[in-house]
Fold this protein.
Amino acid sequence: MTTLTLLWIGFPFLIGFLIYLLPKLDRYLGLLGALASAAFAVQLFVAQTPLNLRLLDHFGVSLVLDPLTGFFILTNALVTAAVIFYCWRSDKTPFFFAQTLILHGSVNAAFACADFISLYVALEVLSIAAFLLIAYPRSDRSIWVGLRYLFVSNVAMLFYLVGAVLVYKADHSFDFAGLRGAPPEAIALILMGLLAKGGIFVLGLWLPLTHSESESPVSALMSGVVVKAGVLPLVRCALLLPEIDPIVRIFGVGTALLGVVYGVFEKDTKRILAFSTVSQLGFILAAPEVSGFYALTHGLVKSALFLIAGLLPSRSLQELQHQPIHRPLWIALVIASFSISGFPLLSGFGAKILTMKNLVPWQVIGMNVAALGTAILFAKFIFLPHKTLAEDQRPALTWGFWAAMVLLLGGLFGANVVYYKAYSVENIAKPLATIALGWLAYWLVFRQLAVKLPRLLEQFEHLIGMMILSLILLFWMVLA
Amino acid sequence: MLEAFVFATILCGFFGILLKQNLVMKIISMDVMSTGVIAYYVVIAARTGLFTPIVYKNQPLAYADPVPQAVILTAIVIGFSIQALMLVGVIKLSRDNPTLESSEIEKSNTP
């Protein structure tokens, strides 16, 4: 089992480099890498027993593979496979596929590791691969967006490193469990690094620009899986240490609300989706015990939404309201929007119910408001005009696009089995009421509203400055 | 005392990233900051002693802790590769923004 796990971690990197050697086979090799991860995740679900690996001594690398990790790995595999299908007919070079696979591998590694240094290495490899993918078009804007991302994540990781050595100083090991005896400043530094990397609350305001200005397949990867590489370690720490649990929950509620507040006033489709990611990450963090299932459904639905948004005729909602979109595309968009709003029959429903059941009392109001906000956000997409367009006006819907949709949306239907117990009358009534209220609010208020929230906090200097403020805040939260 | 200097270095680097306008200077500030972090690992490693942890024949020496040093080696490599990558990005950007002022680049590249 140990050998298999190590092979699985190394495999995507191997494939990534192999793509350079056999550029003709890039798409097939990429798909192979994603499928291997999917198979490994399924095996984790079948085995059910958590696997704790400790390589070398207690200074060495430790890995944890349990069903929780399995959910995240499966998300990663499905999203990567969908992105490869989506790009099958495009003119993307083998470089793109190689980087996708390296990104896939580093995200896998970040999910699996349970010590701070391996996590650091995985997260840094991930930043480099993500930067190369963001900057793939080589335009000035893409390079700037990528540089900004690399800057923010690298500065956050430097603070994280200081935290990691403080943990080592207290415990003589870099294990997550060492956080128990660590001084408060160590916990604050590490949490700050992970929150910034995961795109959560004010520390995550780098995310909207990065995710909206990347190409759609890259946005799908970023929103679907990359941010979760910062979220899973947070969840792990929260599950491990009861003192950290409330902090993670507070940030969960905070980011869920912040994301929808920004999102409902936004008029640009990709930015709405990016802000929705900020808010959905809050749902994942709000109930750490059941975060795996929510992460899976969110990863599937958000990458599907980003892939669809890439084919819409315009990014501006105002223009889309006057320009009907092709009906099959609209149907895919609506299925995804329904799932993320928590409509029954799709697994977004089960995930939301499960999360809501595992909240502590003070979180309930905040999370319900966030769920309402999500319904308003996605009403913007559901009520777009649509018709069957003439042959020459249609967007290019290749088989690759449909394969990606079948994989992602089919996954949303299939994942219902995880929590089929959600289907009871009162459980079904509540999300329906939330969605109805959200739609009502959309038609009465938000449809006509033209408020532009300032983007001050998204400026580069403010992103960096916010780190020190959050650090102070986190320090007092840990101390309290 | 040493720790105070190390933290001063980290903060100097951090404020350099904040206050310097030029992108290259920002990257160099980031390097200063990571130098501070690396030095902190070395200081922590030297808590137990200063000697290189090599097995000697008969004298029990106060060894430095090899683990943080080994770990920070990885971080040094990662740090410099990221800086190299960023500088390549800056070279590309400098073609159209010769002054490399980050606020100008940001203004022209945000929708």
Q: What stands out?
A: The radius of gyration of chain A is 21 Å. The CA atoms of residues 145 and 317 of chain A lie 23 Å apart. Chain A touches chain B at residues 59, 117, 120-121, 124-125, 127-128, 131, 135, 138, 140-141, 143-148, 150-151, 154-155, 158, 161-162, 165, 168-169, 174, 209, 213, 268, 455, 458-461, 464-465, 468 (CB under 8 Å).
